[in-house]
Amino acid sequence: MKKFSPVITLSILLFIPSIIFANTLQKTIQTLHETYEKINDIEADFSQSIAFEGFDTTVDSNGKVYFKRGQRGLRSKMRWDYSAPTRQQIFVDGDAVLHYTPENKQVLQSVLEKQTGLPIDLFFSIEKIETFFDLSQEKENRLILKPQKKGSQVAQMVVTLAPLSKLGGLFIKGIILHEENGNQSKFQFTNFRINKLLSDQIFSFKIPEGVEIIDLR
Fold first, then answer.
1. Alpha-carbon distance 171 to 128, whole Å?
2. What is the pLDDT of residues 108-128, one digit of tens each?
3. pTM of the model
4. What DSSP state is assigned to residue 105?
5. Calpha distance 41→76 (Å, rounded)
6. Is the separation of the CB atoms in 129 and 135 below 8 Å?
7. What Cα–Cα distance (Å) separates residue 90 from each residue in 67, 139, 186, 202?
8. In the sheet that 41-51 helps form, which strands lie side by side, from edge to edge?
9. Is 69 helix (H, G, I), strand (E, B) or coil?
10. Taking the CA of residue 8 as centre, how many other CA atoms within 13 Å lie in the half-sphere pointing to its CB?
């Protein structure tokens, strides 16, 4: 009967979990892809908590988010409606971003690559998630995403997944977004409403008269 040396045995024991973990990550990503393919649009409630570097207090807010996946050459669209503590609206159409704050009577025009504080890239890129992010799996339902693009203002995103009972599979329940400047935004999504045939009008925004327009593009 052959005897394995302790060194070889230890090496095998250390190697096996990494293989299992890699398989788990691959399976999780595949399940995420399969779920995403079943989704045409989403409406959900969200809460957000922002911790700014150097400050002890957080800024908490909530509202509704709408997402419509681009198909047949059409661009993906997104809308964030903040209801508290102040009313704000953010409209994303492809790369174009409009941020409207009624209280300030101000609209910021920007582009997607300059938008920080929102995990828009993630929703827009789920089908190509391995192309845009380096992935690792912290737990069975938690992924670590690090942008591959140099110069990104986002250091990493920690994504929590949960079963999506209406469609089966997994989808995004929570996101912790870590910015390079040390700021951290936590998002929680609840009350998913899937494939309700959201109208394109939901994602269109007409700039009100008398509003200051600031171009950050």
1. 15
2. 999 877 666 678 878 887 888
3. 0.82
4. T
5. 10
6. yes
7. 12, 32, 17, 12
8. 133-139, 142-147, 154-163, 170-179, 184-194, 41-51, 58-68, 77-84, 88-93, 96-101, 106-111, 212-215
9. coil
10. 4
